[in-house]
């Protein structure tokens, strides 16, 4: 499995650091949201950054939850350290690999500084 990260970061205003508007998408910018992929798609998980400080770490862990004839478990992970919070306002993680993906249920977990903040479920049909 090849795991590729597209990353962009930003921080504006005050308040608690957070990953907002988490979404699954068919594109790295998170414009074409989905929860259902085809077996040859690339999976993207995107979240907007809010009050993220330089040095913060964002992680994505991808899991196969259930598919016929496949063992459930982690299928990929990646980590990003925010280096320049003024350039962009979102992070984007991409998972490619085992194509065609087996039909079934999947999820991606997003972590901010080691704390799970979002879990997104999706399927492959």
How are the SSEs placed, and which strands pair?
Blueprint: E1 2-7, E2 18-25, E3 36-37, E4 43-50, E5 57-66, E6 73-81, E7 90-96, E8 104-112, E9 115-124
Parallel strand pairs: 3-9
Antiparallel strand pairs: 1-7, 2-4, 4-7, 5-6, 5-8, 8-9
Structural summary, described in words:
Helices cover about 0% and strands about 55% of the residues. It has no helices and nine strands. A hairpin with a 6-residue loop joins strand 5 (about 55-65) and strand 6. Strands 3-9-8-5-6 form a five-stranded mixed beta sheet, with no helix packed on it. Strands 1-7-4-2 form a four-stranded antiparallel beta sheet, with no helix packed on it. The chain is mostly beta strands.
| Mean pLDDT over the residues | 87
**Rg measurement, Å:** 14 Å
Helix/strand order? EEEEEEEEE
- Cα(first) to Cα(last) distance is 19 Å
Number of strands: 9
Structural class: mainly beta
Strand order of the largest sheet: 3-9-8-5-6
The helix count comes to 0
Give a quick account of the main beta sheet: strands, pairing sense, barrel closure. Answer: 5 strands, mixed
Approximate strand percentage? over 45%
Classify the helix fraction into a percent range: under 10%
Shape from CA axes? elongated
- Uncertain residue segments: 1-13
